[in-house]
Write a structure and sequence with these properties.
The complex is a heterodimer of chains A (113) and B (112). In chain A, 0% of the residues lie in helices and 54% in strands. Chain A is built from no helices and eleven strands. In chain A, the strands form two sheets. In chain A, strands 2, 4, 5, 9, 10 and 11 form a six-stranded mixed β-sheet that branches. Chain B has 112 residues and is an all-beta fold. Chain B contains no helices and eleven strands. In chain B, the strands form two sheets. In chain B, strands 2, 4, 5, 6, 9, 10 and 11 form a seven-stranded mixed β-sheet that branches. A four-stranded antiparallel β-sheet of chain B has the order 1-3-8-7, with no helix packed on it. The chains are: A mainly beta (113), B mainly beta (112). At the A-B interface, strand 5 of A face strand 5 and strand 10 of B.
Chain lengths: 113, 112
C-alpha cells in the first residue's frame, strides 16, 4: 500500500519568512495530493491540492509543487503570518477509485511575530 | 449546507460504558470515514464506507463498530470503552479519495 513520509515534524520561522514542508510517497500510481491545515482544537481543512498532471499550483501565499519522478511534493508558504501557525498534513491518493487517502504524520508550523 | 455534522462535541465515559458517535453529511457524498487523533499525533483511520450498506476496516478498527444504512449517516459505536480510546474523533466525507475530504468538527472523548 501507499506510504507517505512528511518532514520536518516541527518548523519554527519568523513572521515574513518562507516555510517549506516536504512529503514523499511510495506508490508511483498515486495521482492526487491534498494538503490540510489544522489549527489548534479545530478540524483539518483542505487548503490546496494538486493532481499528477500538474507540476505546480498556487493560491495567494501558498503553493504546492510535485515531482513525479522523485515521488515527492512540497508545500510552500511565503510571507508567513502568525495565523499560519498550525499543523499541516499532506496526503496521497492512489490511482482513481481507491477509497482512502494516506496521510503524513503532520508538521507543526510555528510563526513567531 | 451544514457540511459534516458530528455529535456530541464532548463526552466523558466510564470504563466499560458504550456510546455512539453520530455523523451526518448533507453533501450527498458516497464516501465517509472515521478517524481518531491522539494528542500531538496524526490521523488514524478506524473505518470507512463507500456507500450505503458497505463498510470496511481501516488501520485501527478494534473496539469499534460502524453501520451505514443511509447515504447521510455513518455512526461509530464504541463498546466497552477503555482508557486507550480517549481521543478526538473526526468524521469525514467525500466523493472519493482523489477529491479530498470534508471533516466534521470532531468529538472529544475521555474514558475514565
Amino acid at each position: 500500500g501507499e506510504n507517505v513520509e512528511q518532514h520536518p515534524s516541527t518548523l519554527s520561522v519568523q513572521e515574513g519568512d518562507s516555510a517549506v514542508i516536504k512529503c514523499t510517497y511510495s506508490d508511483s500510481a498515486s495521482n492526487y495530493f491534498p494538503w490540510y491545515k489544522q489549527e489548534l482544537g479545530k478540524r483539518p481543512q483542505l487548503i490546496i491540492d494538486i493532481r499528477s498532471n500538474v507540476g505546480e499550483k498556487k493560491d495567494q501565499r501558498i503553493a504546492v509543487t510535485l515531482n513525479k519522478t522523485a515521488k515527492h511534493f512540497s508545500l510552500h508558504i511565503t510571507e508567513t503570518q502568525p495565523e499560519d501557525s498550525a499543523v499541516y498534513f499532506c496526503a496521497a491518493s492512489p490511482a482513481s477509485g481507491y477509497s482512502t487517502l494516506t496521510f503524513g504524520k503532520g508538521t507543526m508550523l510555528l510563526v513567531s511575530p | 449546507n451544514a457540511g459534516v455534522t458530528q455529535t456530541p462535541k464532548f463526552r466523558i465515559l466510564k470504563i466499560g460504558q458504550s456510546m455512539t458517535l453520530q455523523c451526518t453529511q448533507d453533501m450527498n457524498h458516497n464516501y465517509m470515514y472515521w478517524y481518531r487523533q491522539d494528542p500531538g499525533m496524526g490521523l488514524k483511520l478506524i473505518y470507512y464506507s463507500v456507500g450505503a450498506g458497505i463498510t470496511d476496516k481501516g488501520e485501527v478498527p478494534n473496539g469499534y463498530n460502524v453501520s451505514r444504512s443511509t447515504t447521510e449517516d455513518f455512526p461509530l459505536r464504541l463498546e466497552l470503552a477503555a482508557p486507550s480510546q480517549t481521543s478526538v474523533y473526526f468524521c469525514a466525507s467525500g466523493q472519493g479519495a482523489d477529491y479530498g475530504y470534508t471533516f466534521g468538527s470532531g468529538t472529544r472523548l475521555t474514558v475514565v
